[in-house]
Amino acid sequence: MKRTLLLLPLAALAGTLALLPSAVALDGDVKKAEAERTAVVAKVRPAVVAVCPYGGGGHGSGVVIDPEGYALTNFHVTADVSPVMSAGLADGILYDAVLVGQDKVGDVALIKLVPKKAGTPFPFVQLGDSDKVKAGDWSLAMGNPFGLSMDFTPTVTYGLVSGVNRYQPPEGGGTLEYTDCLQIDTSINPGNSGGPLFNMQGELIGINGRGSFDKRGRVNSGVGYAISINQIKNFLGHFKAGLDTDHATMGATVETENEDGTLSQMKFGTILEEADVFRRGVRGGDKLVSFAGRPLTSTNQYKNILGIFPKEWRLPLTYRHENSRKETLVRLMGLMDERANPDAPPPGQPKQPERPDPAKEAAKRSPAMKLFKEKKGYANYYFNEQQRDKLWANFQKHGDFTGVGGAWAVEGTFNANDRKGPLTLTIADTTDGSIDAKLTMNVPFSVKMPTANPLELNVPDNSGGLLPVLTQYRRLLTQGAKGFTANFSHGGVEPCYPPPADGKEVDDWAKRRVDCEVLKTKYGATECKWYFDKKDQKLIACEAAVIPDSDPCELYFGDYKPVDGRQVPHRIDVRWGDKNYGTLFFAKFEFKKAN
Amino acid sequence: MRFALLVSLVLAAPASAADPFGTVAEKVNTRVVKLFGAGGFRGVANYGSGILISPDGHILTSATQMLDSAEIVVHLSDGRKMKAVLLVAEPELDSALLKIKVEGKKLDEPTGLELDFFDYDAAVKRPKAQPGDWVLGFSNQFEIAMRDEQFSIQKGVIAAYTKMHGRRGVFDFPYHGDVYVVDQITNNPGAAGGPLTDRKGNLLGLIGKEIKNTLSETWMNYAIPVAAEVEVKDGDKTAKLTLPDFVALGMKGQYKPVKRPDVVASIGGYHGIIFVPNVLEKTPPYVEDTVSGSPAEKAGLKADDLVSFIDGEPIYSIKMFHDYLKRTKAGMKLRLEVRRGDNLQTVELDLGEQPVKPLPPKPVEPKK
Description:
The complex is a heterodimer. By secondary structure, chain A is of the alpha+beta class. Chain A folds into 3 domains: 35-245, Thrombin, subunit H; 248-334, PDZ domain (Pdz3 Domain, Roll), CATH 2.30.42; 408-591, outer membrane lipoprotein receptor (LolB), chain A, CATH 2.50.20. Chain A contains 9 helices and 32 strands. In chain A, the strands form 6 sheets. Chain A has an 11-stranded antiparallel sheet. Mean pLDDT of chain A is 89; it is low at 1-23 and 344-351. Chain B is mainly beta. Chain B has 2 domains: 2-252, Thrombin, subunit H (Beta Barrel), CATH 2.40.10.120; 273-350, Pdz3 Domain (Roll). Helix content of chain B is 13%, strand content 33%. In chain B, the strands form 6 sheets. In chain B, strands 1-2-3-6-5-4 form a 6-stranded antiparallel β-barrel. In chain B, strands 7-8-11-15-13-12 form a 6-stranded antiparallel beta barrel. The termini of chain B are far apart. Mean pLDDT of chain B is 85; it is low at 1-16 and 358-363. The interface between A and B is large, with 51 and 53 residues. Chain A: Residues 1-25 form the signal peptide.
């Protein structure tokens, strides 16, 4: 009797009401709730992954998020078994899988399962919106705790979201920092790492990965944490491009003002002079009002919001300088440079020579090995090449300029600050292998690339290097990868903020945001980032660091119209730093074939 | 038995609601506080949870070491940070009553805070929760939340309403009344003093401490019910203590805690520490020397070491040290935290049998 009373609620929790005596009249709502719950579990179950060392064995969990077999898991799960591992699905089949992208700080990794027969789609789950999750919501955690399941059938646990926007500090070398994460009482145990957390619609809201452990050992303590899916969405474009991603810092210390007072406020402390936030005019003592649309009043909130973005993203910052409130876009700096290198062995412990591992030896013969290419800065360069080539091929659909590598001549008008008038632009190769670029806007400007002195690249004056960037643009269009032997890689996905056509000051940058695929190039000393609209791979902007230790020159391409069957921008807005330099309007083009 | 089944099934019905506990969590969150005080040591949290029981800022919480602090800091749910003062504690009821102190006002003056609070009297009048009922636990376990961040919410089921055999360190757990035993892991560090409610957010009890059941050596998850009562020996008489009385009298400043008789089990285990002369009422337990060949010498205790904790319990004076040792016996191992220079050291002391005659102190060796 006593035992029944104790076990009953547990049975109800596990969703096994079917075991109850049939004589009991079940309430209609209960039956409905149970049916809905079991239907959700049945729907998502086939996409839950048991992540194993190559060949099998208990290790961690994961979840497939698209029909091609891309699956999310924890970095701390893949770290020991990369690059090639095994992944078991609920159908009992063990697939070969390869690491695609990773986030050491955020503890996330993207892997790809290789289908047994090429082209066979995988079962997958939909991504939810973790910003809509509230404390007190129900949740389902799935995975392979304790390596219980030999046939990869996932275990399901059911419980509450205990808290949202939680911050859990890094563990070990600055990695595994859980920012803005979900806290759950849904039971997660060793082996659940990397597994999915679902809402009751079966949408993926997080990846389970940590718990608060104390006296009771490293098993469920009623306090587990899942990385929010909205954070992962920010990194997903980077993962798919095979990047070994990094998180971000503002390049400034942020302090709590009035820590002992009734209410606290955040303010800037020391700011690095090379930090973008410094160039934007923020100074020590200025108050932080909001970042990326979230108001800031505590250190945890600041760490939370900063922690969900990859480095180099630009995001709106609202701050108060003396008595004026300002909004600006800030480029984020990388974090891992500041923290300890996680790959380095701890001091005093020489790295052990690796013992031969039979699973790793066998993995080398896996067909998934064909999908792996090692390169510094990448989790898997193979996927970078794939994404880059796909992006380039899609961009080429708007117009192929590879046949017109000769001299370019463009005519039109310009409107720069208080000046306006006709414009001519010519860019041509010279016999010595360099490039001559001439731009006339009332007065003539010229530059010779790439031999020009870096101190003479700000041409026209105060444009941030418009003319040198235009030579890079011609080079990109006409030569593609061949023109950028130093670097021509996919940079993942970043937001881009084209300024308004009327040249007015922007008061809400978030509204102008367009998510773009990024191509990174390097020719000579000039590094460029090219922004392609994620929807149609149309080139909408470029950012080039022409002048050392200064803001990049920004070009925004608009008013695309066909010229000889190719889409060509008839308008370029130029910005440098916080200033709008001006707008170029193109009317007539002449693209000559290469000699 | 059929009845019990139905009860829990009917209660399960709201599970399909679009907003199962979000509104309840938000409502409860305005009636709880995050507490910060003494501790911060291995196994001893310097943070805790409490519930507001008056608009004026009376806080009911668990009687923990965290409250042994000159200054207790309170974070309200709206992010305000304030100070609180311990009014009275009753270990027999595992409860303590605090009050928020507003700058510039005396403690017995109205604070004018007009906070949201749990109606304690109403909670006592409500029927007890039954085994099988769903309950919610709210706390700032693991110090997850600061300032205006929300308390953690956990869902559990009442497993039993019963007496408990608990222990904590070498002390017997002082509370001997009935408790709600919960199937969820609610009693984590810092959770003690948080509310256990029904699924609508009505107060049922206070989440208890982290203690182990002496029968099974397993960690217990329990809460002290709002109507808790215990019988204690007060001299020759047996007195009945109730939590509602504690709350009602405590808020008026009229509650007198029961004087607990010292648990004199034996003469205690032998350590061999020679302390500095005990001249003050609270002489700090500085080691002056150790007896040659004694457990203290073997454990490596040195002159000028300051004994700060024994098995996680703070020790402030030589008297406290001796009182603690009375509850020990030969063969026990004590874990001391000792301040040596600027560092804290952990020292394990294997207590021995008391020598028939105290050994003379080790003579100071002449300097060569």
